[in-house]
Design goal:
heterodimer, A: 165 residues, mainly alpha, 2 strands, B: 187 residues, Lipocalin, 2 helices
């Protein structure tokens, strides 16, 4: 999931600045296919999160930091839903329907409209910049837990670690 | 003599409605006309249009085979759905609008297919290349105007539209569907 999102982010920022070429159109299609896939997988992830409560944060953490951690995670989940959705809306408004893997047409949610399309492009871009910032915070916080606080927060994210609970 | 005059008067008054029926639609109203196209990009249909064109048309429903039509489409007025696409297709590999600013269609023979359906054979010239095309069209009278609707498919490669890295059809398909609606008033 993380690999998919990093790939999407990198591809998104890269392809945006390319001059128009067949490769660019191909990359856009791939980005849209992967984006739809990510959007579906996020709902699975959310379902898992709702049905499996993660272990509580270490009690050594100050209340304020605990609150910040929860807010950060909430934003990560929210952005993972909202960003693909904004891409989908933007494609609709720009008049370029998304056809998943070139086979399954995804319905257009909006009428074709240039202004709305450009606005949604800005929204998609800004949300991604925010996403990058929150991810950086997430990684930074995990590393801080591991190296400075020396607790098991980073290790417990790994699948092999769940055996003890 | 008087009788003949009355007979003539009656017959001419009877003939009048028929004469009025033999209207010729020849004043193209570009604001009520449109030339659109649909192309496929990686299997996904994308709509575009040309906003500037002119047209001459003479159509008398009583004499359809004598009809004539011509179109001049200003290729730089293309709307591909994306502004960077508009710039791209004006360039050399596509329309090369600097050298070939207009696309032109000139009708040849017109066949009546029955009902309101017609088939117009003609020649389409784009980018210095001319191809014979057959264009099916329908005619609908709307008050004082006649509306002509039709569509036909061209292959962009026939006109060297999209050369070089665009020449393959895996990203942008060869077939382009042209749809038109022409409204013409009678004089």
């Amino acid at each position: 999931m993380a690999v998919l999102f990093f790939g999407l982010l990198a591809l998104g920022f890269y392809m945006h600045d390319l001059p128009l070429s067949p490769e660019k159109l191909q990359l856009y299609s791939w980005h849209k296919w992967a984006g739809v896939s990510a959007f579906l997988l996020v709902w699975l992830r959310l379902f898992w999160r709702v049905t499996h409560r993660p272990p509580a944060l270490p009690t050594s953490m100050p209340k304020l930091l605990q609150l910040a951690a929860h807010a950060g995670h909430l934003m990560l989940y929210g952005l993972m839903i909202v960003i693909p959705l904004s891409g989908w809306l933007m494609s609709s408004a720009k008049g370029f329907q998304t056809v998943w893997f070139g086979v399954l047409p995804i319905p257009d949610l909006l009428e074709k409209n240039k202004e709305v399309g450009n606005l949604l492009q800005t929204v998609h871009m800004d949300l991604n910049l925010l996403f990058v910032a929150v991810i950086a915070g997430h990684i930074g916080a995990a590393l801080k837990h591991h190296f400075i606080d020396q607790d098991d927060i980073l290790k417990r994210m790994l699948p092999a670690h769940n055996t003890e609970k | 003599m008087k009788r003949l005059a009355i007979a003539l008067a009656i017959s001419s008054s009877l003939a009048l409605p028929f004469a009025a029926h033999a209207v010729e639609y020849n004043q193209v109203q570009t604001d009520k006309s449109a030339i659109n196209f649909t192309y496929k990009q990686m299997g996904v249909a994308v709509d575009g249009k040309f906003s500037r064109f002119s047209s001459q048309l003479n159509f008398d429903p009583a004499k359809p085979t004598a009809a004539k039509a011509s179109f001049d489409v200003e290729l730089a007025s293309v709307d591909t759905g994306a502004s960077e696409g508009d710039e791209e297709v004006a360039g050399k590999p596509w329309f090369n609008t600097k050298v070939f600013p207009t696309a032109r269609f000139v009708s040849g023979s017109v066949k009546a297919l029955g009902g309101n359906r017609y088939e117009v054979a003609g020649q389409l010239s784009i980018k210095g290349k001319t191809q014979d095309v057959v264009v099916p069209a329908t005619f609908t009278a709307q008050g004082k105007s006649g509306v002509f609707d039709g569509s036909f498919t061209i292959r962009r490669a026939d006109f060297s539209i999209g050369e070089g890295s665009w020449a393959k059809f895996d990203i942008v398909a060869n077939d382009v569907l042209i749809k038109f609606r022409i409204t013409a008033a009678s004089k």
